[in-house]
């Protein structure tokens, strides 16, 4: 498993059910090899402007992502998962997108410390 990969993992849904969903591996955490991930969704109405990011068929890294439809990368839907819960990888986003998402998330976290 590598950072920037689109993975399949059980994630809780709004209705409380847990089912395999795509997520983006943002960062491997120190210590036990757990991963910080964010959820992916086709529910575009959930977009948080200037925070979440769309990945669409027009993007250069879409084909390599393994996603089947335009999707929303939900930086606000975070989880830390042990490797054993990651069912596998279906693709990856570009290193540029991955870096941009990490910068956006870290900028938001640091902004709150002012």
| Tally of discrete structural domains | 1
Q: What is the H/E string?
A: EEEEHEEH
CATH architecture: Roll
CATH fold description: SH3 type barrels
**Largest sheet descriptor:** 6 strands, antiparallel
Individual helix count: 2
Shape: globular
Mean pLDDT: 93
From the N-terminal CA to the C-terminal CA, the straight-line distance is 35 Å
Low-confidence stretches: none
Strand order of the largest sheet: 4-5-3-2-1-6
Can you count the beta strands?
A: 6
Structural class: alpha+beta
- What is the strand content? 35-45%
CATH class: Mainly Beta
* CA-atom Rg in angstroms: 14 Å
Percentage of residues assigned to helices: 10-25%
Overview of this structure, please?
The protein is an alpha+beta fold and 114 residues long. It has one domain (5-111): Roll (SH3 type barrels). Helix content is 18%, strand content 39%. The chain has two helices and six strands. It has helices at residues 62-65, 95-111; strands spanning 5-12, 18-28, 35-41, 53-55, 71-81, 88-92. It has a six-stranded antiparallel beta sheet with strand order 4-5-3-2-1-6. A hairpin with a 5-residue loop joins strand 1 and strand 2. The longest helix has 17 residues, at 95-111. The N and C termini lie far apart (35 Å). The model has no long low-confidence stretch (mean pLDDT 93).
Notable features of this structure?
globular, single chain, 2 helices, 18% helix, alpha+beta, 114 residues, 6-stranded antiparallel beta sheet
Question: What is the topology?
Answer:
Blueprint: E1 5-12, E2 18-28, E3 35-41, E4 53-55, H1 62-65, E5 71-81, E6 88-92, H2 95-111
Antiparallel strand pairs: 1-2, 1-6, 2-3, 3-5, 4-5
């Amino acid at each position: 498993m590598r950072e920037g990969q689109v993975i399949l993992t059980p994630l809780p849904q709004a209705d409380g059910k847990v089912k395999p969903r795509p997520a983006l591996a943002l960062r491997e955490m120190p210590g036990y090899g757990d991963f910080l991930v964010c959820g992916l969704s086709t529910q575009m109405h959930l977009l948080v402007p200037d925070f979440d990011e769309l990945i669409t068929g027009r993007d250069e890294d879409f084909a390599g992502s393994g996603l089947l439809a335009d999707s929303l990368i939900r930086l606000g839907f975070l989880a830390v998962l042990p490797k054993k819960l990651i069912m596998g990888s279906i693709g990856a986003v570009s290193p540029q997108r991955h870096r941009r998402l990490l910068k956006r998330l870290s900028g938001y976290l640091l902004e709150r410390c002012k």
